[in-house]
Amino acid sequence: MTDSQIIDLYWQRNEEAIKETDRKFGKYCSRIAFNILENREDSEECVNSTYWKAWNTIPPHRPQKLATFLGKITRNLALNIFEKNNALKRGKGQVMLALEELEACIPDPCSENPSLEKAELAKALNTFLAGLTDEKRKIFVSRYWGLTSVKEIAAMYGLTEGKVKTVLRRTREQMKIFLEQEGISV
Amino acid sequence: MKSKQMLRAFGLIDEKYIEEYMEDSMVLRVPPSKKEKSMGQYERTRKHSMRRVVALILAACLVMGLCITAYASGGFNSLIAKWASRFVYETPTDELREERPDYAEWLDEQLEIQGVLQEMGEQAQQVNEEKSPEELAQASITLLESYYDGEKIAMTCRLSKAEMHVTFDFDDTHPKFNELAPNGTDIHGDVYSEVKSWESYVPIEEDRQLIKQKLESKGCVGFTTGNFGLSDHVYVNNEDFGYGHSEVESDGLFYIDPFYSGLGNVELPESCRDQSEVDVTVRLGYSQIHWWLEGDKVLWAFESNGEVYPVTFTIKNINQ
After folding, report:
1. Rg of chain B, C-alpha, whole Å
2. Is B7–A121 a contact, with Cβ atoms under 8 angstroms apart?
3. Rounded to whole angstroms, what are the CA distances from A95 to B3, B14, B89, B149, B319?
4. ipTM field
5. What is the pLDDT of residues B237-260, one digit of tens each?
6. What is the mean pLDDT of chain B?
7. How many Å apart are CA A158 and CA A149, to the nearest integer?
8. How many CB contacts within 8 angstroms connect chain A with chain B?
9. Alpha carbon of A171: minimum distance to chain B alpha carbons (Å)
């Protein structure tokens, strides 16, 4: 079934929409959730919540790309669950590792104004990503959007883990310089 | 926390980049979820079985291909490559992260070095050259592998028969007798303030038995153990490039440490770069420990004659 046929089912309020979504995008959403939560039950719950949110958002929304639409919802929900579960814990999972990696490449000073910067940052990130080679960009997005482990990224692109880590480190350094040049204060 | 904001901001990046990720990630195996079992279980099981079979066949082909490539390139036998692959950095502990706030970057650097080392190992030349200067008694150093490309050096060597038989001429008339002290006494600086059990310094079983017999029959025994140990520094064309080798392992293997030869912050000296061959020298020092066992009491004193004995190997540039 095509994306637009599935979206039509949502608009018709036909529950088959959920089944078709799961059939086509279940694994993809599960992977995003699992990368962040590293727990099957939590991931399953997160994916179900994604479907529920999609059901409540379409209509009125009509996403251009169902996969990215669902992926973004899953990622946000999973990060919410992660933050809730790990409010006091440190040092586990891809999210904490990714946070540590990113910590070092964010220019000072850190502001206390999150809503403004998220959009500003995203804009800058898009400009930065556009300037990267395909390989670097894919690796970088896999790590920090998909929260995919270095091992899996290496498997995905047929590279060694060492190579992936080197690319990530260099790209983080590039990003730091870029953000500084853009005058972005995170 | 600013990195959290950054991670959230990644959620707002252009969808075309997410699509790229989505397409690539679709090829990966997904962790099985409970939900899958409730939906068309038979169909899914059949598909999974087929996929598993295909995946296994592909994996087997891949492994075979890798084996053939590694064998053909010599990487299979490379001790340097094996040594590099033994470094384990993959599971950072919480403690390690706390100790090293820059852990992620440090890890990247280590992995980069590891990757280079493995590549060097795969290209290293197999050698079997043993050197045993007279001063070393029966001890010898064998060069097993070498790599020099004009900028970087790596070598695998084996130190053999560095331990000597014990001698039993140590008694209360020996000048070092007055320096004997138990473990924990700092008489030679921190490095020598602790020794392991005396048995670990007596490599030959016959010697150990003899010491025990003497101790039992007389109530006390004095003896001396001696061994050749590697001096810290390594020299290339007579230029010192600092602490440049790994620890000597239990089987005598040690590695001329290329971390200091152009991969890290220290490059090879100018005179050692881009040569058709270079002379690499390691030095052995001889040291003794005098032991006095009396009942349960173990006393010891360290002695070195301060001499070092150089052993030099000439290694050729693989690119020339």
Report:
1. 28
2. no
3. 10, 21, 18, 41, 45
4. 0.77
5. 988 777 678 878 878 899 987 665
6. 74
7. 14
8. 169
9. 12
